[in-house]
Design brief:
Length: 419
C-alpha cells in the first residue's frame, strides 16, 4: 500500500517534475485532441501541475500521478467551456452540453493509463497550414515537452523569438480548426517527413546529454526512440520510418561508451566497443535490413547505414572509413544538409584527403556555420592535420566557445594542445 504520509516539500516537487517529464506529452496530446486547442490544453495541464504542487504535500502523491493530472486537467477544460458559453450568449446551451459530453465521455481508462494520442498531435503539427519552419519546434514543445529555451538553443534561434512564434502558431491551429488525426493515405506522404524530422530533432537534443544532466537528455532520447518505434508500427510500409528507428537505435547504442572515467568525453573512434549496447545495435540492424527490403531509399536509411558502418567495428576491430566516406558522398549529393556536409568533410580527412575536406567546408555559407559547433571542431582538426596551425588555433577557440558541454570543451583543449 502506498505511504500517504505527508512527504517533504522537496520530495513533492520532485514527484511533480517526474510526473510532468514522464506524462506531459501524453496528457497534452490527449487533452488537445479533445478540445482542438493546444494553448487551452497547455493551460489546463499547467493548472493541474500547480494543483499537484499545492495538494500532494497534504494528500500524498497519488498511486497513479498521470491519472490524477488527467482528471484535474479535464475538469479545467470543462470549466473553460462553461465559462466561454456564459460569456457568449449566442452559443446555445446544447453546444455546451455536447462539448461537455465529448470531454467526459472520452474519459481515459485511468487504471490503464492515458490512451496514446501523441502521433495524432504530431501530424496536426505537420499540417500544411502550419508554417514549415515551425512544425519541428511545435512538435518538440507540445509532444515532447521541450521549453522555448531548449528549442532555441538546439535550433540556434533566440528563445524569445521561438516563444512568440509558438504562441502564434498554436492560435492559428485553434482558429483554423486544424484536426488532430492521422492523415489519409493521399496526405500521408506530404506530412510524414516533417514528423520524422521532428522526432530526429528531439533525439539530437538529448543525444549528448552528460551524466550530470540528471538523465534528462537520456530520457528525451528515449522518448524519441519510442516515438520512432511507434511510427514503424503504425506505418509498416514506410521505409524511412524504419530508417529513422535504425538510426536512433544505432546512435543510442554508443551512449554508455561516450564518457570515460570522471566523465571524460570519448569520440566514437576511441570508444570501447565492449561498452556499446549490443541489443540496441541488433535492433537497429534489423530495422535497417527491413527498410532496405522495401526499396524506398531515403535520407534516414543512408544515415543509419553510416552508423551501421561504425557499429561494425565491434565485430571487425577496425572502422571502414572509406565506406563511410562513400556513404556520406551519397548523402550530400541526394540529401544535402549542414550536418551531412560536415560529416563528409570529416570522413575525407579520415581517408587522407584533408584538402578535399577543407574544400567542402569552405563551400558552406559563412552565416549558416557561424554558430555550428561541429563545423568548427572538424575544421580545426582538418587545419591542424594540414599543418595550418594559426588557423587551426582560431577554429579550436571557436569550437571550444560554442561547446556547452564541459567535457567536450576539455577534450577540444587537449586536441588543441596536441596541434
Amino acid at each position: 500500500m502506498t505511504d500517504r504520509r505527508r512527504p517533504p516539500s522537496d520530495d513533492v516537487a520532485e514527484q511533480v517534475e517526474l510526473a510532468a517529464r514522464e506524462s506531459y506529452g501524453r496528457l497534452l496530446a490527449w487533452l488537445a485532441s479533445r478540445c482542438g486547442d493546444i494553448a487551452t490544453a497547455e493551460d489546463a495541464l499547467a493548472d493541474a501541475l500547480v494543483d499537484a504542487v499545492r495538494r500532494w504535500p497534504d494528500s500524498g502523491v497519488p498511486d497513479n500521478p498521470e491519472a490524477w493530472l488527467l482528471t484535474v486537467s479535464r475538469r479545467r477544460l470543462v470549466d473553460r467551456v462553461r465559462r466561454d458559453v456564459r460569456q457568449d450568449e449566442i452559443v446555445a446551451a446544447a453546444s455546451l452540453r455536447l462539448q461537455q459530453e465529448a470531454l467526459e465521455a472520452a474519459e481515459a481508462p485511468l487504471g490503464g493509463g492515458v490512451p496514446e494520442r501523441r502521433l495524432e498531435l504530431l501530424f496536426a503539427c505537420a499540417h500544411p497550414d502550419v508554417p514549415e519552419t515551425m512544425r519541428t519546434p511545435l512538435m518538440l514543445q507540445t509532444v515532447l515537452g521541450l521549453t522555448a529555451d531548449q528549442i532555441g538553443s538546439a535550433m540556434i534561434v533566440a528563445p524569445a523569438t521561438i516563444g512568440q512564434r509558438l504562441v502564434r502558431v498554436k492560435r492559428r491551429i485553434a482558429d483554423e480548426g486544424i484536426p488532430f488525426r492521422i492523415p489519409e493515405d493521399d496526405e500521408l506522404a506530404e506530412r510524414v517527413g516533417h514528423v520524422l524530422d521532428a522526432v530526429y530533432a528531439a533525439y539530437l537534443t538529448g543525444w549528448d546529454g552528460a551524466p550530470e544532466d540528471g538523465g534528462v537528455g537520456q530520457g528525451l532520447a528515449g522518448e524519441a526512440i519510442w516515438l520512432a518505434g511507434l511510427l514503424v508500427r503504425l506505418l509498416p510500409d514506410l521505409a524511412e520510418a524504419k530508417g529513422l528507428y535504425a538510426l536512433l537505435c544505432l546512435s543510442e547504442s554508443r551512449r554508455p561508451a561516450r564518457r570515460g572515467p570522471a566523465g571524460r568525453y570519448v569520440p566514437v573512434d576511441e570508444q570501447d566497443t565492449d561498452r556499446w549496447d549490443h541489443d540496441m545495435i541488433i535492433s537497429g540492424e534489423q530495422a535497417l535490413w527491413l527498410a532496405a527490403r522495401l526499396r524506398q531509399p531515403g535520407r534516414y536509411q543512408i544515415e543509419a547505414a553510416i552508423q551501421s558502418l561504425h557499429a561494425h567495428r565491434a565485430r571487425s576491430g577496425v572502422t571502414d572509413w572509406a565506406a563511410i566516406r562513400d556513404a556520406y558522398a551519397v548523402l550530400v549529393e541526394q540529401y544535402p544538409t549542414l550536418g551531412a556536409a560536415v560529416g563528409y568533410a570529416a570522413s575525407l580527412g579520415r581517408t587522407d584527403r584533408v584538402t578535399d575536406g577543407l574544400a567542402v567546408l569552405d563551400e558552406l555559407d559563412p552565416d549558416t556555420v557561424d554558430r555550428h559547433q561541429p563545423y568548427w571542431a572538424v575544421r580545426a582538426w582538418l587545419l591542424a592535420s594540414a599543418e595550418r596551425g594559426v588557423e587551426a588555433d582560431v577554429a579550436y577557440e571557436r569550437a571550444i566557445g560554442l561547446s556547452s558541454d564541459p567535457a567536450v570543451r576539455s577534450w577540444l583543449r587537449d586536441r588543441r594542445g596536441l596541434g
